[in-house]
Amino acid sequence: MKFSSLRPRVALYAALLLTMLASASGAVAASTPAVQVTEINLPRADGQPELPVRIAAPARGRELPVIVFSHGAYSSKDDYAPILDDWAGHGYVVLAVTHRDSTRLGAVRGKSDPRFMSWRIEDMRLLIDRLDTALTAVPGLAERADPRRLAIAGHSFGGLIAQTIGGATLRDPASGAAVSHQHPAVRAVIIFSGAGPMPPVLQREDFLSLTLPTLVTVGTKDLDQAPGMTGYEWRRLPYDLIAPGNKHLLVLDGADHYLGGIVGRDDLPRSPDAPAYLNAFNTASRLFLDAWLKDDQGASRRLRDWPTSATPFADKATLEQR
Known about the structure:
- It is a single chain.
- With 322 residues, the chain is an alpha/beta fold.
- The chain has one domain (3-321): Alpha/Beta hydrolase fold, catalytic domain (Rossmann fold, 3-Layer(aba) Sandwich).
- 30% of the residues lie in helices and 21% in strands.
- It is built from ten helices and eleven strands.
- It has helices at 7-20, 81-89, 116-129, 131-135, 141-144, 157-166, 231-235, 237-241, 274-293, 297-305; strands at residues 35-42, 51-58, 64-70, 93-97, 145-155, 170-171, 178-179, 186-192, 214-219, 247-252, 317-321.
- The longest helix is centred in the last third of the chain and has 20 residues, at 274-293.
- It starts with 6 loop residues before the first helix and ends with a strand.
């Protein structure tokens, strides 16, 4: 079934998913000498507003793998710099978009639009399909990047988008049939505090079609959604339900939905443990990306050895694999 034929059906459940996967706004970070940050607007078709894209890239290096990132509901591309720029500083080109459900583009937090889900899926597919165009906006970057080694990552609502573009199906609300929005260019997936099953639009069996290497991250005090969809237990379910093989689960002890207030929003008290949560997340995600996008055998070994390794944040983070 073609994606274009699904837009009306996707719109029927977009409001439900957006309400369940809310995030908030944060602050813009500047470039560092090692990382160049560029803002562009990628044209959409049919006279729709342009897609804002933040590109963070290493100042040096060649054959750089690429990561595309989808933010949480009501948030923006500018609210995750401590993660995105860390990836860029370690040899990745990182492209993050601002979706139309962002408060930065006029959306009202807590209010939904039935088009938000289909817009988000379109945004990420557009970005992947037009990576060459986006990369040429930064002088010399297209020649240094390798879009054939591509990961998709996302937080909260963006985590749901990442798993969907990576291969997990959604349900046609009219027929109940499983519908795939998978993009064949994606090689690895990061689901950061994403979403478990949400019947009838996302069933337990829909996760089985996500067969790519996947990292799921969750905090033990992660955000509750609704009765039966409680924080930690529900948000770790993508790991429990996806097809086994090359799957990793990072659990951050005591962390909330925003790693202690350090990403995703700036209106909460900062946890004193936030730097440790961020360090653990960045370390685990870099090892995962290095293993599956750079084919780094050392990173693969360190992922396997994580449970027995001594780290400054060992009391805050555990890593499971299956």
